[in-house]
Structures are given as C-alpha cells and as structure tokens.
Amino acid sequence: MTNSGRIEDVPIGGDVIRLGQFLKFAGLLDSGGNVKEAIIDGFVTVNGEVDRRRGRQLHVGDVVTFAGRSVRVRP
C-alpha cells in the first residue's frame, strides 16, 4: 500500500463530481482511457465497494480507492 492506510483529502470546489473526473482530478489516473479501463475492470472502489460506473456522482465525504491510494472528496 503506497499511503499506509492514510486517506488524502482532495477539495473539488463544489459538492458533486463524477467518478471518472475525480480519478483524474485527484491524480490517481492520468487519462480518460486509463480511468475507463480501471473502472470497468473493477479496480476502483467507492466507500469500500467496487463501482463500475464512470459517471457515478460522488459527494463530499465519499472515499475513492485505487492501487492502494485512498482519497476523500472535500468541498
């Protein structure tokens, strides 16, 4: 695990963001193609559960995990 179980806060400047956008914004993935592939393959979790919807609406407080790194949506 790259962050030793630590959760990073990532402010989005609002209340809602889509999962695919957030993965890029938070620096977990660098391209839309990589985001799509990671989500479809089930490598991304939201609040501890696999979610395969790139357009899933994330809200303040949601925690997204990919490749051992966890980030929490902040306003």
From TrEMBL:
InterPro entries noted in UniProt: S4_RNA-bd_sf (IPR036986)
Keyword set, alphabetical order: RNA-binding
Domain of life: Bacteria
Keyword flag RNA-binding: yes
Pfam families in the cross-refs: S4_2 (PF13275)
UniProt keyword annotation of Translocase present: no
Name of the featured protein: RNA-binding S4 domain-containing protein
